[in-house]
Write a structure and sequence with these properties.
The chain has 21 helices and twelve strands. The protein has 592 residues and is an alpha/beta fold. Among the domains are: 147 residues, no CATH class; 169 residues, no CATH class. α9 runs parallel beside α10 and α14 packs antiparallel against α15. The model has no long low-confidence stretch (mean pLDDT 95).
Length: 592
């Protein structure tokens, strides 16, 4: 099934390991695209069994006794999701003839400016026959794309019968193979930076290349932090004959999950670079791409394939959504954290959802709990942290490590272990005990050691709890990874209500003090500079001073850009321009 031609102008990004694990089953039949994380093949296998039983599809477990179990689990689950989405989508199309609720739901959720919605209303006004309606539906309706995500750096080695397996069995490589060998016609979102070995592995699969008609079945989406990163990675892949179909810009700090701060570059100026250089990007990459295809004796399209530019991170109102789409000429805007409060889109336990509803700005915070050593957005009071703190009180810090996806540290052991594990933390505390330090320094370093949490388990548990699946190995603790934007959404809503909010048909935010998405990100970056970056850097060190000055200057350049932007004739934001300019002046003074 060809999933191109997304009928919506928004998508649901990957949310943690488990929060969007089955979102596609729930929303893709209605034309909404979403992203599945491929980190946790154990969770994926449990979800495959759950949906197989639910849809009366024979289930044969894929056990660890199979050498390539990880890739095969992923392929099988993705094929199952694809099958279920196809069946649900066909049901929606069939229901059009009978004017049933599901078809009406599909049409009503489309934006009011949608060509599909307008054409359908015109068709109905002409009093068509059932056959004419059927033909129109078959031709015009599309499901949402079932996309997948790989964090490129989560690529640990694996073992079979005590022997280290070849590189293609590494976690990210196996996940890539699982997607490549699936039936999906969709995109793989590569995030968390460049992994040259993994990128080279893409060359092994035909679906990443254009066919004789120029069509690419498996497409590449790069999650990038700025234009420079996009063009470097785009050219790198083009030289291998791999086309990047989408560059997905994510705010470095105004996002959920792991936060990869830029060097002070703000979202608006980054999107401006893409807006002004999109054609140049396509031209440079296309020339390298066709040369590589010729070298490989592959079909060479006569024209460059489409390049989509999308963005995500902290968007919360229809006004912001429409502005980003129109002004920066974006193809889609990602809405992540708000969908955590939509039970039709995201499955989780009731307790966690209630906590999310009541979480304010102080509860959603940038933490140090990730074993990857990258700042990670979390919610205070989550049950996984409660588990962690109880172990610390009992004098047994660290978690059991049943899944081992974040086993990347070799400081103490030959085989990598996880910094959130009991094994690592005990070894690290023993090392600290042997050092001569002040009580204050000891406590600070001890706290840094034990802060790490087993998020690769905690982020998948909500799906198990919601579907009443076996979680004995994982335990009941839940990790949560919303972005700061969640603080302004305080109650559960239906899928049509949230989609209506995105398109401005209704409003689900009751608070009136929510700052504009650009201002919120600016606030976060200044806080990051003051509270995280500046305390770590020594201005007397020329190199560290240069880093600090560059970060501050990039923020200042961003403020200048916004002042010019909002002083101009942006009619859709005229109602807030004066408020935004006042905030910019305050932040400029604070930065100085």
């Amino acid at each position: 099934m060809n999933y191109l031609g997304n009928p919506h102008t928004f998508h649901i990004p990957v949310m943690g390991i488990g929060y969007s694990i089955d979102t596609a089953v729930r929303v893709a039949p209605y034309g909404i695209s979403s992203v599945i994380s491929l980190v946790d093949d154990i969770l994926i296998e449990k979800m495959r069994e759950f949906y197989s039983r639910q849809h009366n599809i024979p289930f044969e477990p894929i056990t660890r006794r199979i050498k390539d179990f990880r890739a095969k689990r992923i392929t099988s689950y993705l094929n199952l999701v694809d099958q279920i989405v196809r069946e649900k989508f066909e049901e929606i199309k069939r229901s059009a003839i009978e004017k049933k609720e599901e078809f009406n739901k599909y049409i009503e959720m489309l934006p009011d400016f949608s060509t599909i919605k307008r054409e359908f209303n015109e068709l109905i006004a002409s009093k068509p026959t059932a056959a004419e309606v059927k033909r129109w539906v078959q031709k015009k309706l599309r499901p949402g794309s079932i996309d997948v995500n790989i964090m490129t750096k989560l690529d640990k080695e694996n073992y079979y019968q005590g022997e280290t397996l070849p590189q293609e069995y590494n976690d990210a490589h196996a996940a890539l193979r699982g997607f490549a060998e699936s039936n999906l016609d969709s995109s793989i979102v590569l995030s968390a930076g460049m992994n040259p070995r993994l990128y080279a592995y893409l060359e092994n699969f035909d679906d990443f290349y254009p066919d004789a008609k120029g069509y690419i079945k498996k497409r590449i989406t790069l999650k990038v932090s700025d234009y420079r990163s996009a063009i470097i990675q785009g050219k790198f892949l083009a030289k291998k004959g791999i086309w990047v179909s989408e560059y997905r810009v994510e705010s470095g700090l105004n996002c959920g999950g792991h936060a990869f701060a830029t060097d002070g570059f703000l979202l608006g100026p980054i999107l401006e670079a893409f807006r002004s250089s999109k054609q140049e990007l396509g031209k440079e990459v296309y020339e390298l791409w066709i040369q590589a295809l010729k070298t490989k004796n592959r079909p060479v399209p006569s024209t460059a394939p489409e390049i989509r530019i999308t963005a995500q991170g902290g968007v919360g109102t229809a006004e912001e959504h429409e502005f980003l789409i129109d002004y920066y000429d974006l193809d889609s805007v990602g809405w992540g954290s708000p969908f955590l409060l939509v039970p039709e889109a995201v499955a989780m336990d009731d307790e966690t959802r209630e906590q999310l509803c009541s979480a304010g700005e102080d509860e959603v915070y940038l933490s140090g709990i990730s074993p990857l050593g990258v700042p990670f957005y979390s919610m205070k009071g989550n049950s996984k942290d409660a588990e962690k703190e109880e172990r610390i009180r009992q004098g047994e810090p660290g978690s059991p490590c049943p899944k081992r996806y974040a086993c990347l540290d070799t400081e103490f052991t030959e085989k990598p272990i996880c910094t959130a594990s009991r094994e690592y933390q005990q070894l690290k505390i023993n090392q600290l005990d042997e050092e001569t330090v002040t009580q204050e320094e000891y406590q600070q370093r001890y706290d840094n050691i034990v802060e790490k949490s087993c998020i690769c388990v905690g982020l998948g548990t909500p799906s198990l709890l919601a579907n009443d699946l076996n979680h004995r190995a994982e335990g009941p603790g839940v990790s949560v990874c919303p972005g700061p934007n969640l603080a302004y959404f305080d109650h559960t809503v239906s899928l049509p209500e949230m989609v209506g909010h995105i398109y401005g048909r209704n409003n689900v935010i009751e608070r009136t003090d929510r700052p504009h998405v650009f201002i919120k990100e600016l606030n976060i970056y200044i806080d990051y500079l003051k509270n995280r970056l500046a305390p770590k850097l020594n201005p007397a060190n020329p190199k560290e001073k240069k880093t600090l000055d560059a970060f501050r200057e990039n923020i200042r350049e961003g403020i200048r850009y916004y002042k010019e932007l909002f002083s101009g004739k942006i009619t859709k934001l005229q109602g807030r321009s004066e408020e935004i300019l006042r905030e910019l002046a305050k932040k400029e003074a604070e930065l100085s």
